[in-house]
From TrEMBL:
Keywords: Lyase. Gene3D superfamilies: 2-enoyl-CoA Hydratase, Chain A, domain 1 (3.90.226.10). Its EC number is 4.2.1.17. One of its GO terms (molecular function) is enoyl-CoA hydratase activity. InterPro entries: ClpP/crotonase-like_dom_sf, Enoyl-CoA_hyd/isom_CS, Enoyl-CoA_hydra/iso. It comes from Rhodopseudomonas rhenobacensis. Belongs to the enoyl-CoA hydratase/isomerase family. This is Enoyl-CoA hydratase. It holds the Pfam family ECH_1.
Amino acid sequence: MQTIVVTRSGRIATVTLNRPAARNAINGVMHQELKTFWTTFDRDPELDVAILTGAGPDAFCAGADLKEYIPQWLSRTFQDVRDNVDDGLGGITRGIRVKKPVIAAVNGWALAGGFELALACDVRIASDTARFGSFEIHRGFHHGDGGIVRLVASIGVSRTMDILYTGREVSAQEAHAIGLVAQVVSPGELMATAQAYAAKLVEKSQVALHSIKETVLEVVGKSMGEALKLEAILGYSSGDVAHIREQLREFAEKNAVKV
């Protein structure tokens, strides 16, 4: 693996997003490696629980690597949007549905698509320095990889509207208060806390845990698959196309790698 590190401890797998210089942003290679990991993990009879975290203290995940994704989407058609519906971001925001429990250990920024990746996990444990952000509104669009669907399911309509409308930072403490994260601990305690939580799940009936997860995801509003498909189509085709392309071009030019 080039962009993720996978370790095993008993029946627990820990996958670490390992691009700290890029705040663990998801590029094409990481996306494919995560898809492979989730599929392998879900079929492995010797693993029961996964923990997802990011390398370094600064970020869990800063979302999609825009330097790579922007050029791809500037010329995409609506048919490309439809084809993307079953692909998602990072393997589990849409497309792959993991039946086993997944815990996010959020150690820094969970931003944009990184926020969506954290929301796609079943339980979130955050360090007290973690921060969450839906900053897409500042570039003229909104989440398209599960952020809206899962925010509404987790914290309700009004709080979701506030976070998405303003594009403001959400601290770990606020995230805990509104139900986005289950626990907030010091950075030094984060992984031990996540491991201890995972260990408790290993002791439970795995058949029951899988059924709980399946049932919860099916009963929240309409089915998760229907809701995610709708959000993907609306999110990836939202806003003034000319304005969005201009904003993305400006970003790409500003951050172009100089040879």
